[in-house]
Amino acid sequence: MIVAGRTGSDGVRLVLEAEEAMLLSELADQVDSVLLLGAEDDPALGRLLPNAYPDDADAAREFARYTRGSLVDGKRQAAQSVRDATAVGEGERLVEIELDQVQAWGWLTFLTDLRLILAERVGLGEEGTPEQDEQRDDYLRAAYEWAGFVQGSMLEVLDPTES
């Protein structure tokens, strides 16, 4: 059960079941792991930090040198924000999270990163279509779709004119 609604300050209010909050926290750990430990040739890391100059190796290296650290830091901070907010106390069944607009957009950054990683892991191409005939890992696909639902719910609240 996820409820996204307006707070008094045009932010987002999420009510998550404890299991959903724990799942988001675990997924934030996994995003952080890809950012910290991902091999240079990991296609998921390539989706998170795409090559700005695919036809010019020198320009790509130079661009990465100046931007990669701050991009990774921002993505890690977004994941940490999700981990902090989704801490589940002993015996809690629901976790209520109030996010102002800045925090909510940080969460949306995290959800985008998460979905990019999951899409790569389940074999979804850039257009969201399977790259292979076989469906891979139903758990990851379900997490991908659920994260999309959370993301869509938040966007509807943050920009109701777009729905």
Global mean pLDDT? 87
What is the terminal-to-terminal distance? 21 Å
Total number of domains: 1
Secondary structural class: mainly alpha
Write up this protein.
By secondary structure, this protein is mainly alpha-helical. The protein is built from 5 helices and 3 strands. It has one domain (27-87, 101-162). Strand 1 and strand 2 form a beta hairpin. Helix 1 (18-37) crosses helix 4 (101-122), helix 3 crosses helix 4 (101-122) and helix 4 (101-122) packs antiparallel against helix 5 (138-158).
Short précis:
The protein is mostly helical. The protein is built from five helices and three strands, in the order ββαααβαα. A hairpin with a 6-residue loop joins strand 1 and strand 2.
